Amino acid sequence: MHPDVEKVLLSTAELKNKVTELGQILSRDYAGKNLLAVGILKGAMVFMADLIRNISVDVQIDFMAVSSYGASSKSTGVVRIMKDLEQNIEGRHVLIVEDIVDTGLTLNYLLEILKAREPASVRVCTLLDKPSRREVDVSVNYNGFSIPDEFVVGYGLDYNEKYRNLPEIYVLKKEVYQK
Ligand code: PRP
Ligand code: MN
Ligand code: MG
After folding, report:
1. H or E stretch including 50?
2. Best substitution site from 83, 96, 99, 132 to test ligand 1's pocket, by max atoms within 8 Å of Cβ?
3. 163 found inside a domain
4. pTM, full prediction
5. What is the pLDDT of residues 63-78, one digit of tens each?
6. Is 102 an annotated catalytic residue?
7. What is the 95 CA–ligand 2 centroid distance (Å)?
8. What Pfam families does the annotation carry (predicted)?
């Protein structure tokens, strides 16, 4: 285990089982719909890569990258689009793929932007949900795990851009982010 982590929160086996299960549910729900899965960079990339390999119906992929506006952003919920979709989503069945929903501000903004483009549907699939941190009411359609309010890293999730490469999901040691 990496020396900066305190414990494993979700193991490789737990992640694999959940991603398999989500893939099966999505394959059933999106049969015949030509799904467009939209991964939100960078955190969702590992989950997205595993998830699409567990979807057995037709699926196209695209990515968006968003960044909050400075320190006040987390309270205003305004995010800047750093990378937009490559295609028109009008009439498409869009699934936003996130690694974690925390305050919900990022997702709330993304949903607003994407709904304005008149897709046939927009739903959200997140690996992790921290409901106790929610600041805006945002609906998550597919959730892997609801987790307590602990600082988690790995499997795409970072702290200061580190630990995205770790294979499982871990709780970060407090001294790492408190110093
Ligand atoms: C993280 C995470 C979600 C968002 C959730 O991304 O990947 O996208 O924050 O937080 P919220 O619900 O409070 O808005 P981050 O902005 O850290 O970028 P990253 O994915 O590149 O790490
Ligand atoms: Mn993110
Ligand atoms: Mg981050």
Report:
1. helix 45-52
2. 99
3. no
4. 0.96
5. 999 987 655 545 566 7
6. yes
7. 15
8. Pribosyltran (PF00156)
